[in-house]
From TrEMBL:
Recorded catalytic activity of this chain's protein: D-ribose 5-phosphate + ATP = 5-phospho-alpha-D-ribose 1-diphosphate + AMP + H(+)
Cofactor details (free text): Binds 2 Mg(2+) ions per subunit.
Organism, scientific name: Oceanipulchritudo coccoides
Keyword Chaperone: no
One GO MF term: magnesium ion binding
EC number: 2.7.6.1
Active site (UniProt): K194
Coiled coil (UniProt feature): none
Quaternary state and interactors: Homohexamer.
Keywords: ATP-binding, Cytoplasm, Kinase, Magnesium, Metal-binding, Nucleotide biosynthesis, Nucleotide-binding, Transferase
Record-given protein name: Ribose-phosphate pyrophosphokinase
Length: 315
């Protein structure tokens, strides 16, 4: 299949990212009419011929998650009914990923439900980044290309290697990610033990790792209310950390998250543009994943391997 047969459709969830991907790929986005009826139903019309084309629909399911998910499903259905050859759902941020297991009675596994909806709508392939739980790939009966933000972060983070750096996971579940970043940066790693009080309140109880006088890099896949980051940063500074930064793949900050960021518990929050982020004059650095997504899309379009995209430059 030739690159000329690629068609990129933009959802409304993150238009700047979609346009940046199109610019990297070197093509114009396919024109799509997207509107809401008075009762808020979504209407989609693809205004160009996509019959037999390799279609990529860029739409993270970030807040408002339900609206953006429904829009994605309708766009996939429209592409299927327009006889697209292959429909690739490009979902940089996969909403509902935290509901990935039945950890109490009578609850759903919504991450699996969303996977079923995407497949039923007509998606042939999913391209995503830093799922909350990598095993979510197994919820799909279609190919999933799972990219990592670490490849984007590395060039920015390596300048801190001389600051007596240590990588810290803000909870026990993120130790594997922290170990990967520590290996990448050639530093030690540790973790913070925490106790969740409710959906927005977290209490850090202890630190494993020597952080006194060091520059700490907290790594996590996402932050919303910033409760975990705040609790971790507080105990790390109490234990003598000189600086505390956080590298988070998806900054889905809500009003509580921005409120906490204004308290200045972090020296810097580093994230990507997988979801729209309003920095609001806060110490937030946003790195673009457009080249990473664009390169992956080109390789998928040409039936090439995406494995090399997982490798860090110089490693």
């Amino acid at each position: 299949m030739q690159i000329g047969e690629m068609k990129i459709l933009m959802g409304s969830a993150n238009v700047p990212l979609a346009k940046a991907v199109c610019e990297f790929v070197g093509t114009e986005p396919t024109h799509v009419t997207l509107k809401r009826f008075p009762d808020k139903e979504v209407f989609v019309k693809i205004d160009e011929n996509i019959r037999g084309k390799d279609v990529f629909i860029i739409q993270p399911t970030c807040p408002p998650a339900n609206d953006n998910l429904m829009e994605l499903l309708i766009m996939i259905d429209a592409a299927r009914r327009a006889s697209a050859n292959r429909i690739n759902a490009v979902v940089p941020f996969y909403g509902y990923a935290r509901q990935d297991r039945k950890d109490q009675p009578r609850v759903p596994i919504t991450a699996k439900l969303v996977a079923n909806l995407l497949v039923t709508a007509g998606a042939n392939r999913v391209l995503t980044m830093d799922l909350h739980a990598p095993q979510i790939q197994g919820f799909f009966d279609i190919p999933v290309d799972h990219l990592y933000a670490s490849t984007v972060f590395f060039d920015y983070l390596k300048k801190f290697k001389d600051e007596n750096l240590i990588v810290i996971s803000p909870d026990v579940g993120g130790i594997k990610m922290a170990a990967a970043y520590a290996s990448m940066l050639g530093t030690d790693f540790g973790f913070v033990a925490k106790k969740r009080m409710d959906a927005t309140q977290v209490e850090a109880t202890s630190v494993v790792g020597d952080v006194e006088g060091k520059s700490v890099l907290i790594v996590d896949d996402l932050t919303e209310s910033a409760g975990t980051l705040q609790a971790a940063a507080k105990i790390l500074k109490e234990r003598g950390a000189a600086k505390v930064r956080a590298a988070v793949s998806h900054a889905v900050l809500n009003s509580k998250g921005y409120e906490r960021m204004q308290e200045g518990f972090l020296d810097e929050l580093i994230s990507t543009n997988s979801t729209p982020v309003d920095c609001r004059g806060l110490p937030i650095t946003i790195l673009s994943i457009a080249p990473l997504l664009g390169e992956a899309m080109l390789r998928i379009n040409n039936h090439q391997s995406v494995t090399s995209l997982f490798r860090i430059k110089g490693f």
